[in-house]
Amino acid sequence: MNILKNGVGEMRIKGVFIKNYRQFQNVEINFNYSSQNDLHIFISENGSGKTNLFNAINWCLYNKEPFQTGSRDNSNKEEKMPILNLKTLTASILNYSSKKPINTVSVELTLELDDGRTAYIIREKDFLVKNPDEVKEYLVEITDCLGNSVHSNSIDKIFEFMASEKNMRNIDIKQPKLEQINNNLVVKKPTQGNDYKIIENDGEEDGASNFIEKFVPRDIRQFFFFDGEQLDDYFQIETGKNLKEAVHQVAKIDLLENIEYRLEKLNKDFRKKSRDLSPNIEKKEKELSKKEDKVNNYEDDLEDINEQINLLENQLKVKREELDSLIVSEDKFPSELKEEKEELEKKLGEVEENKDKKIKQKQKYLVRMCKMIGAWPAIKHTNDMIIEKRENREIPPAIDIEFLEQMLNENRCLVCSTEIGSEEEETKERKAVEEIKSHISHSQSEAHLLTDLGVVIRTIQNDNLDNFENSLIELNQEIKGCETDIGEIEEKIIEIENILDNVDVERIQSLRREIGNAEDARDNQIERRGSLEELLKNAKSQRDEAKRKYQKALKKDKEAKEIKEQMRFLEKGMHIVKNVMGEIISETRENIQKTTQEKFMELNRKNRIFESVEASEDYELRVGTYFNYGATGDLSGAETELLALAFILAVHDVSGFYSPIMIDSPIHRVSDDNRVNFINSLIDISQSKEIILTFTPDDITPNIKDILFEAANKKYKFELDENEVKAEVKNYA
Questions:
Q1: Minimal CA–CA distance to 709: which of 720, 721, 701, 719?
Q2: Contact between 575 and 256 (Cβ < 8 Å)
Q3: How far apart (Å, rounded) are the C-alpha atoms in residues 328 and 72?
Q4: Stated pTM of the model
Q5: Which residues lie below 8 Å from residue 1, measured CB to CB, with a gap of 6+?
Q6: Domain locations in the chain?
């Protein structure tokens, strides 16, 4: 099945041949296919050359390596390495005798065009080694250490020797100095029959670069080549302004902008001609130009301010995110934690002081009760004796002496009112009362003493001895409660100390100052923007007034009628161009929005919560669910990648550039079932478009392995030699 002959695309990559480019010394990769899926995968460890495969293709097309700096396959050391393969470079220096060695780096792409014919794109660069003598002397010193004679077979042993820091400790390292002496881009374009037209560089209008621009334009290559680890951040990396400019180029709106510019230039030329016809017109034209320049200056200033505000907002976002990552313990800053620790330490001192008081109180209580407990047998014996005497009626009854004296004074019984006689009569009844009074006055004090003693003994028993156990338990519980509080407070203090030990307090304080400064700078720019907008509004009003006066002067000048007509025609043309541009921009945005929504829903067919996709004028996408609208930041990593993929496919449809999609590590940041959905989506797309993907072995999880391997036409891997300076491509078993 030939996808291109079905008219679905314009170009696909059939193969790539890489010579002396970084770790690829002599590598050829075939992308032919026979199944319904034009899908090709590479599975290798990081650092083996996956990313540099995409760099090589970009380098061939655009003389750029977009994934070089900061890519996963390139350490800081490799970023400083020459583009020329190290083994080739080393061999050329070892074999050098008199003529300075020249080495060629080349990448050749074999393309299948929409009519089924084949084209070739070749980029070559030649590098001259400027210091071969000193580098060879350095290499000879290494071979002497190895005990070998200098020849090309020494290369592997040289790299093995150089890998040891110990071996290189006493050797003065000499880096080769390379000079690029040419850079050739050649296109072999098919013509009639089996002939080819050779196009070199850009010497003619239909140059090599123009040929490439027909398939994958340089300025929109971000829609064809991707770093998969950044695909879920695609809408943050590719800002709305960048996406808008790229889409406008895709839709050829830049051509209309060029037409508008040329019409405005013609209009200014006509103004200059009209100025020569009338001094009055010349004055009005100068005034209008002055007002227009003022408006343009204000607009430029506003654009600069808006860029500054956006830059400050991005800086604030980064700093706030970093600050949020440093804030600990439920959004408390270290200063707050320190205050909390000081309060806890103060509370700990109070609780410990209270505990000491309770312990002393317990000790005093025990000392007092020990005395009572020691005397209790004697006290109990006394109490028992009092009870026994009371029961045996040995204790006189409690008779009131004053009551008896009142009877003697009144000469009668106060109980029965019987007369007892006066003191002189000395009756029998009176003598009986006096005898009782005399007897009771002697024993009554003993009775009262024993009664009071019994009361004291009962009080000791009830208030002290009976409550001894409860009082002791209560004191112990209070002491234990203090100990529990002390443990909890000490645990909180230790927790806060552990948190503070791991917090970069200086960085937090620095970030807070930086955020404050950035917010002040942003607010100043916003305030300045408001002032400039008012100035711009006034300047536009003055410009419009100057334009009205200028047009009025032209109208009055009979000799300027022809120019006026021509200028009116130009203004009408500019108006038409602006309207057409607006319609195309709107139609393009609507088409991309509609196509993105259709493809996103198709790619997310297992997820039924999504309802629609909306694109703003700056192509900021919002995904609607059946509940509400959310920004792209509300989506999961996998959903964002699918949205980016849907948007990219929509741009492909609008642009008409049906070229391959190449993604480095597409599922590195996608997990679980989302991986299956994402891979199935890529497989579906590969039925109508060539797709080249790279993975690490860890990326190939069991839930996608069978699906991916069954669909893939080609499965390759890169293998590095033992010195990690040369990579070979092999079929992945």
A1: 701
A2: no
A3: 31
A4: 0.57
A5: 35, 36
A6: 349-501
